Task: structure prediction
Amino acid sequence: MTDQATPEASSAPAERPERDRPWLIRTYSGHSSAAASNALYRTNLAKGQTGLSVAFDLPTQTGYDSDHPLAKGEVGKVGVPVNHLGDMRALFDQIPLDQMNTSMTINATAPWLLALYIALAEEQGADPSKLMGTVQNDIIKEYLSRGTYMFPPEPSLRLIGDVVAYTVNHMPKWNPTNVCSYHLQEAGATPEQELAFALATACAVLDTVKAQGQVAEADFARVVGRISFFVNAGIRFVTELCKMRAFTELWDEICRTRYGVEDPKFRRFRYGVQVNSLGLTEQQPENNVYRILIEMLAVVLSKKARARAVQLPAWNEALGLPRPWDQQWSLRLQQIMAQETDLLEYGDLFDGSPVVQAKVDDLKDKARAELARIDAMGGAVAAIDNAYMKRKLVESNGVRTVGIESGEQVVIGVNAYTETEPSPLTTGDGDGILKVDERVEAEQIAALNAWRDGRDQAAVDAALAELDAAARDGGNIMGPSIALAKAGGTTGEWGETLRRVFGDYRAPTGVGTAMRDSAADLAEVRAQVDAVSERLGRRLKFLVGKPGLDGHSNGAEQIAARARDSGMEVVYEGIRLTPAEIVNAAVEEGVHVIGLSILSGSHVALVRDVMERLAKAGIAEVPVVVGGIIPPADAETLKAAGVAEVYTPKDFQITRIMAEIAALVDARAAA
Result:
């Protein structure tokens, strides 16, 4: 007879192991208006989200008010517009800031948005020293990827140092800079480049703070302890997991050897993560759910390198702006992992794994070598000025692009297993995405004008004078910024004041000549371009332009580089051009075709503006092609306005696009 448990023993509940606290659960959100975004935040918090992650629109990110000419078409598209303290009040209405952990994805204007946040907290009766949260405040990656910089690198780093010093001295629970490698991977960084470029950025920030002397030497370890990171996790699960362990070990090493930090808690690699959006596909978008889950596993499975905060993209971000239901789906994914599984009941699952340790060591060795190259140049700022880091990202992204085109890098639903059934997720109204009402911009501008009319202009002028003086004299700009926020100053006034002091800046594009001779079918396209150029009587000239404030230039850079490799003469002056500047360049350069790249959702307004200006300039016959995240209905609208062709992320064969552009120019010339 076999032994059996007694009824008493079998009915006793198993003792549950003690569980670790879960990471902060966030969704990155904000759109249309402060009031609409506030409603979304309160809904998500009610659904169990444990922290806020605020997305600001491009005018706010680049220091313009909503009525600035460059803001046309951009207001409320990729985030919430915040022009002044009134907008900040509406954004956090019924949300007590002293009970919230708020992440603000803001960089060039980080001192200003933090000043508005502090001013509002004081209005609510909160003690700023108790506030918890993060401003991204990483300007270096803006020169390399997203493009929302305002000033040259040196004064930009100075402003970061001001924020670090102010928060360490007055807001000890606040993370004053969130070194962001997320967008480096989106721009094509390899794992070792992501490691090295992010760590070089952190060193540049710490070296700046140390040189400024605003923090006592005895408190410098606390500065190091408040540095946090924001990383990306891609689909190569094992590599990404090992990358995070490498980040943790390398940062501990840098803190000990470079900065002499002895307390282990100040050497901790504290990071938040959003998993990869670059790899989300327009084709078969339902597959993105699996990609997001796998990518999240890389940053939560390894206890010693577990993320402190996680935000996940929605399955349909390759199609457009996610709806509240789409964000809820991503939120539930985190909650299931944190609360239904037993993940948080165990120690590190990968300690002692020879496979994991070998990969970690390899990544660390390659990252150290890259860091040494950057240090030899003079650091991260020097590697921006000489375009080294930007050029390496463009090259790496080119290798990735060619790999997808050739099929060497398999992407399910894109270059493999492309047969598909219609997705019920994208049927119905709006093609399965949220669309921002076009009236939002006019309403925001009207509210901005009312705000200006109702404030004490003398108080604003006095606060602006104090800000100007601090910027010129080398004083910390946080105090004057907070005073300006309380006086009723605006984002544009803050930005314009500092632009007068520090000047504007245009970063290197990183687009060299003839970088990828190995691209598939390039010889055939070159022959085609040569033939068309001969019929034209001169080399086919292609203007690649990025109108508006969208700084995501990865696609435009790949198009410009491949066009040059194909034998075209390319005019590409980088990001943030007005429609007038693009049309003027088209006239002056005598181009044969214009390509516009817009990923901010402002494509209809900006393209219409360009088309109208081309007609007024007498060159309406020059064909225009447009690329971006453009829903089918908008693509038809653009074609009705005269656009020759619209390309979206599903059009990944760049060499084929070059052939189509050459054929388009040939057909127009023959007409």
About this structure: Confidence is low (pLDDT under 50) at residues 1-12, 513-518. Residues 522-670 form a domain with the Rossmann fold fold (CATH 3.40.50.280). The first strand starts at residue 24 and ends at 26. DSSP finds 26 helices and 15 strands in the chain.
